[in-house]
């Protein structure tokens, strides 16, 4: 990546939610590691979010609601998950409910995966390009990210023709936007700023 790269910190969750979710994510990851069931817990957590809550919006709202009592939620958790998911995960869901924190489940899943990758010396990388990357381009990107962050990239690439060209790379909260669309936007903004400056001075 060159000196012209542009990056910023993108807030996926607000700071307070992220802080709370990270505490629970670390606790769940520690418990799963202790029982050597990390991969199973991670897979079931992600399945809970993507296969259950994402498809059953009523159940998702029910669990996150501040109006529904913890007792009603506990009964629902037992009915839906007891004996059907990993015991570490099941007890974790009950603990979240006891502390009225079921609303941060999605954030916990994301942060738990990030923490797991960090502990394993890996990092998840989301790359978006105008055209599909070939093997050489993908390997060059991995090499540059490995040198920059000191971790092994796990690369996920998405194609978006609207970018026109170039690449957007996201690692945790770090974002590099080297797309042609972004460069055109920067040039447009520079022209607008310059035009405003000239107009302001002509009026003096």
Explain what you see.
With 204 residues, the protein is an alpha+beta fold. The chain folds into 2 domains: 15-116, N-terminal domain of the delta subunit of the F1F0-ATP synthase (Peroxidase, domain 1); 122-202, 2-Layer Sandwich (60s Ribosomal Protein L30, Chain: A). The chain is 59% helix and 14% strand. The protein is built from 8 helices and 5 strands, in the order E-H-H-H-H-H-H-E-H-E-E-E-H. It is elongated and about 60 Å long.
What labels describe this entry?
204 residues; alpha+beta; Peroxidase, domain 1; 60s Ribosomal Protein L30, Chain: A; 2 domains; five-stranded mixed beta sheet; 8 helices; 59% helix; elongated; disordered N terminus
User: Termini separation (Å)?
Assistant: 43 Å
Shape: elongated
The CATH architecture of the largest domain can be named as: Orthogonal Bundle
Helix content: 55-70%
Cα gyration radius (Å): 22 Å
User: Hey, roughly how much beta strand do the residues contain?
Assistant: 5-15%
**Any idea of the CATH class of the largest domain?**
Mainly Alpha
């Amino acid at each position: 990546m060159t000196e012209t790269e542009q990056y910023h910190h993108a807030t996926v969750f607000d700071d307070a939610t992220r802080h709370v979710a990270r505490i629970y994510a670390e606790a769940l990851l520690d418990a799963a590691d202790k029982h050597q069931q990390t991969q199973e817990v991670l897979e079931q957590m992600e399945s809970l979010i993507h296969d259950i809550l994402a498809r059953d919006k009523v159940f998702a709202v029910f669990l996150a609601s501040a109006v529904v009592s913890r007792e009603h939620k506990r009964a629902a958790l037992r009915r839906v998950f007891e004996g059907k998911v990993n015991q570490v995960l099941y007890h974790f869901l009950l603990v979240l409910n006891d502390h009225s924190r079921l609303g941060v489940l999605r954030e916990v899943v994301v942060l738990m995966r990030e923490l797991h990758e960090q502990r394993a010396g890996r990092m998840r990388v989301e790359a978006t390009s105008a055209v599909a990357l070939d093997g050489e381009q993908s390997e060059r990107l991995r090499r540059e990210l490995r040198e920059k962050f000191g971790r092994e990239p796990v690369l996920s690439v998405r194609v978006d023709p609207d970018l026109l060209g170039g690449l957007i790379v996201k690692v945790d909260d770090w974002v590099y936007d080297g797309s042609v669309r972004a460069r055109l936007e920067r040039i447009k903004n520079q022209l607008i700023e310059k035009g405003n400056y000239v107009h302001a001075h002509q009026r003096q």
